[in-house]
Amino acid sequence: xxxxxxxxxxxxxxxxxxxxxxxxxxxxxxxxxxxxxxxxxxxxxxxxxxxxxxxxxxxxxxxxxxxxxxxxxxxxxxxxxxxxxxxxxxxxxxxxxxxxxxxxxxxxxxxxxxxxxxxxxxxxxxxxxxxxxxxxxxxxxxxxxxxxxxxxxxxxxxxxxxxxxxxxxxxxxxxxxxxxxxxxxxxxxxxxxxxxxxxxxxxxxxxxxxxxxxxxxxxxxxxxxxxxxxxxxxxxxxxxxxxxxxxxxxxxxxxxxxxxxxxxxxxxxxxxxxxxxxxxxxxxxxxxxxxxxxxxxxxxxxxxxxxxxxxxxxxxxxxxxxxxxxx
Length: 327
Ligand code: BGC
Description:
Elements: H1 2-19, E1 28-32, H2 38-54, E2 57-61, H3 68-81, E3 85-88, H4 97-105, E4 110-113, E5 125-127, H5 130-144, E6 149-155, H6 161-174, E7 180-188, H7 193-206, E8 212-215, H8 220-230, E9 238-242, H9 246-254, E10 259-263, H10 265-282, H11 284-289, E11 300-302, E12 305-308, H12 313-322
Parallel strand pairs: 1-2, 1-3, 3-4, 4-5, 5-11, 6-7, 6-8, 8-9, 9-10
Antiparallel strand pairs: 10-12
Bound molecules: beta-D-glucopyranose.
């Protein structure tokens, strides 16, 4: 997988360097994320590194927490500015269909990152294969619980595709362990950290026999960890979650989080700029021609995941350093 990404990157950077023109007006690109969180700072870093390398102006915006109206408002503003390309991570894939269709009709190429919106007419998706990543989380959970226990699922969204796909993959993996019960309903906090902690505390109180949390979004694992710590249940209530901010890595070191599925979001930001800059320079069709299509004719760039536990924590930190995402 890594070699595939590197190969795409190499081809794209090569094209960019051929097409640089000192007198050309600087290309403007917008990258839209979902919430203020260290997870998105890494996407932004990827975006900024690529923008510097390819000499383009890149703008980044995230609402404070899940806020589809703010996201649509930002997309409308960028369309009004006539920017050269948009990469977006929609909190609700249905809600952005008309604004993305409008942008595409006006000749502004749009691609999705982190979470997809396939019906919007976007040109491609760059990010995690969320169903598979959810399955991986479920398989790890089954191993940690030795096939038996009660699990609460916490997420920031019940509309964003990445959240729904992770939950589906997680549940499918656990359906192979009939002695693992999932607490319903799934707890949703709209990417509001204090709400996430409150929900985790409540589910712990309501279910004294709870064995584990599955944290779907970046802040869910650490929020569950706070609740588990204050209930004095570290080691009794396990945590499997997503992402690898400093907080996640410290909690793994402490033995509060058992395993996390690390996304490679740096590349979501980096590749968004590389693709859109090249579309502006050599044309959308010429660019799309170079990208591999799946059986449905869609272009999906899977950035991959890394499962991190106490056992491989040191090696993982080295990997982050290699990518320039310092710990
Ligand atoms: C998800 C993002 C989300 C972030 C912060 C990540 O796991 O991929 O969609 O915004 O967590 O909650």
